[in-house]
Design a protein that fits this description.
By secondary structure, the chain is an alpha+beta fold. The protein folds into two domains: 5-261, Lipoprotein localisation LolA/LolB/LppX (outer membrane lipoprotein receptor (LolB), chain A, Clam); 274-376, no CATH class. It is built from eight helices and 20 strands. The protein has helices spanning 5-22, 44-53, 82-86, 140-143, 158-172, 276-283, 316-331, 367-376, and strands at 58-67, 76-77, 80-81, 88-97, 101-107, 113-119, 122-127, 132-137, 176-186, 189-198, 205-213, 219-226, 234-242, 260-263, 291-293, 300-303, 334-337, 340-346, 351-355, 360-363. The chain has a twelve-stranded mixed beta sheet with strand order 9-10-11-12-13-1-4-5-6-7-8-14. A hairpin with a 6-residue loop joins β10 and β11. α2 (44-53) crosses α5 (158-172). 27% of the residues are buried. The model is unreliable at 1-36, 147-160, 270-274 and 277-287 (pLDDT under 50).
């Protein structure tokens, strides 16, 4: 696992959430900006078009992520405190100046931080707590490619993009309401606030609020509320943001004295080091494609043939992680029914059922709905 993999996991969550909730909007009311906001009226379709077509050349700012999912106590694995990763508040700073110049700095406890930096052909991953860094020099061909995902539909014209958004809204309208709570102010900027809510009241998600910048059209904040809760169970958003060009020095990295630097071989990656047979083992048996039981916001994903045993490990650190993971699994509540038996993870936003016969079921629903899905997919 790379030195940046651990803190980066928590920042993958808000990134995925932003993408997912933008795509989960249904048809709804016309948005009406507050008279004092100065923002013109925009329909949900128009806002989604704005986001899809948004282009930002430069950006810098501070992002704060907060979560209160009600998770059970998680184990420490490979020196990583999983509980700290997915609960509480975390702060990151971001700088972006085109696809070949980007930096994400995740703030840890005290003065600790982890950085991922792309500066042309140079890519650095740095962990101040471990005093370690990994440097990779990209090939000429790789350096030409963007460091992030491609822009949304870069070769699609406005007409076909409009048709795609209309189709999306039409398909999801049966299960989703979308409205507005006026306009919001995020990081000192005026923003539209979409309020997305499931029509299915047995979903554990009550609503999702997305603040979209009124000028640049990018999401500035996402909040996910559990049913019956006044405070968000998950929130990620900018507390400060600037669209001015960052100083070039932000992308230059010189390892501090005492840092152990590892030069990565071209083309190397954590995934590539895993033998094909091990990758197949981790991903489940071939042909065991996940099933979807139910529809909309109460859908349950069912994966079969999952190996939920914990590898024993060879090194002392691996054995310690294995013992912690086993202890965690054993601490989960035991449940049983006509569907079989297993262990349950229940949070404010979702539930997960791990059965003894190698199935994993998950959804934004109460455990009872997982049991029903388990009975249907024995």
């Amino acid at each position: 696992m790379s030195v940046f993999a651990r803190p980066a996991v928590r920042w993958a969550i808000p990134a995925v959430a932003l993408v997912a909730v933008i795509g989960a909007a249904g048809a709804g009311k016309m948005l009406v900006a507050n008279a004092s906001s100065g923002l013109p009226e925009r329909s949900p379709q128009q806002l989604l078009m704005d986001v899809a077509q948004a282009r930002v050349d430069s950006l810098s700012g501070t992002i704060v992520q907060k979560s209160d999912l009600g998770l059970p106590k998680l184990p420490e694995l490979d020196g990583t405190d999983l509980n700290a990763m997915v609960t509480g508040s975390h702060t990151a700073k971001v700088w972006y100046d085109g696809p070949q110049h980007a930096r994400l700095s995740v703030q840890g406890t005290g003065v600790d931080e982890s950085d991922a930096i792309r500066n042309g052909k140079d890519v650095w991953l740095y962990d101040s707590a471990k005093k370690s860094a990994t440097h990779r020099t990209l090939s000429a061909d790789s350096a030409k490619r963007p460091s992030a995902a491609p822009s949304v539909l870069p070769s699609t014209g406005p007409s076909s993009l409009s048709g795609g958004v209309t189709q999306l809204l039409t398909q999801l309208a049966p299960s989703t309401n979308i409205g507005t709570d006026g306009t919001a102010k995020v990081a000192g900027r005026k923003a539209y606030e979409l309020v997305i809510s499931p029509k299915q009241h047995d979903s554990r998600v009550e609503q999702i609020r997305i603040a979209i910048d009124g000028d640049k059209h990018i999401p500035l904040r996402v909040q996910i509320f559990a049913r019956g809760s006044a405070d968000p169970a998950f929130e990620a958003g900018f507390t400060s943001v600037s669209f001015a060009k960052p100083d070039a020095s932000e992308f230059r990295f010189n390892p501090p004295a005492g840092t152990k630097v590892t030069e990565a071989k071209p083309g190397s990656s954590d995934h590539s080091k895993v033998a094909p047979k091990d990758r197949d083992h981790r991903q489940g048996k071939k042909g065991d494609e996940p099933q979807i039981v139910g529809t909309g916001w109460t859908s349950v994903v069912v994966a079969k043939g999952v190996d939920t045993t914990v590898p024993a490990g060879k090194t002392a650190e691996q054995k310690k992680a294995s013992a912690a993971a086993t202890k965690f699994l054993d601490s989960l509540p035991k449940v049983h029914g006509s569907w079989g038996s297993g262990r349950l993870v229940e949070t404010k936003l979702f539930s997960v059922l791990i059965t003894d016969d190698g199935r994993v079921l998950a959804g934004a629903v109460a455990p009872a709905q997982l049991y029903q899905a388990a009975a249907q997919t024995k």
